[in-house]
Structures are given as structure tokens and as C-alpha cells.
Amino acid sequence: MEIFGIYGASGFGREVMPIFKATNVPERSDRRYVFVDDDEELGDTVNRTTRISQREFLEFDAIEKTLAIAIGDVKIRKRIAQVFSKKQIKWGSIAAPSSTVLHDVSIGEGAILCSNTILTSNIKIGVHFHCNLGSYVAHDCVIGDFVTFAPNVMCNGNVIIGDNVYVGTGVIIKNGTRAKPLVIGDGAVIGMGAVVTRDVPTDTVVVGNPAKPLPRKTP
Fold it and tell me: Which residue in the list 103, 128, 130, 139 is annotated as catalytic?
């Protein structure tokens, strides 16, 4: 028996499960597709796909287990990956048929590329990257581990994005240059609809057009 799982059935996972099934081997008696989610309120099946717990997935008797993490929150996704990395799990990558990957693009394991996404050329991306509906990454970009692009993110050329970065829906990231790339630091959060025209420091939340840091709350 082989088992193919998507971790998370509350939203994003339900969007990408059909892609996961369509782009991997067909389901049959010795191959199963499941959602992995501990929320029992979801029921035993979600969109006609069996839901099992994390423990059940880990204990499932299979010659090979493949898992993709469909959790948008970068910190939670990283924590889940750390748990499963200690087990004999193969990380599955998902790429919608309408996604486009052009020349000299390196993508780490566990990536999810949704419909109408584009990665152009000379791009390096770390592990467990999410590129949601209609987003693109242009030339000469470097993106770290556990980065989430929400829908319709426009990341232009010569941009460096650190690890654990969340980029909200409709964000525009201005292009840098080869000599001076635009840099978004580790752990940054880019709010929905922001226009990023300059570097974003590590662990900073920015919003607006042009994007500016949110004031830190005082005790």
C-alpha cells in the first residue's frame, strides 16, 4: 500500500487535493489519498476523501508515505515539517497543470504551485514554498524556506526573500537590481495589498502603499 496525504483539510488543502490527485498516480486498491487533520469536527470524509489523524497517518502500514503540507501559516507549516522529517516520509510537491516554470528554476521539496502561477527564470526557492492562485516570481529571485505567497502576489526581478516570510494577497514587490537586490528579511509579514518599494527588515510587519512598518504596540 502507498498513501498520499495532504496535511490540512480546512481550506487550502481542499483546494489543492484535486491537483494532488490529478498530477500523481491514480488512486486504486493499493494507493490511497487522504487528508491528515486532527479536527474531528470535519468528519471522517472531506470532499469525498478520507480524513485521518496525524497519528493514524504515521502508524499507517504502507511501503511509502508521501505528504504535502497545505497550511498557509509559515510557523505552523515549519513545525509540522519538523515533526514529520523525523519519520520516513517523502515530501510531495504539487504543481497545477496551468502553472508555468521556465528556465533554470530550482525549487526545494514540498512546494505547492497553484493554478496560473508563474516562475520565470534564474530563480532559487527553498523548501515548502506555497505559491497561491495567480502569483508569479520573476527573474533572478532567491526565496528562502517556508515562504507563503497568497493569491495574486507579483514578485518582480532581483528580489531576495528570507525564511518564514508571509506575503499577503495582491502584494506587489518592486524589482531590485543585480547590484542591489530588494531584500525582505526572515520572518517578515507583508500585509494584503501592500506595495513593497524598499527593503523590509527581519521580523517586521509592513502594510500600505508604499509599504511601511506597523507601529509596535507599547505595553
Answer: 139
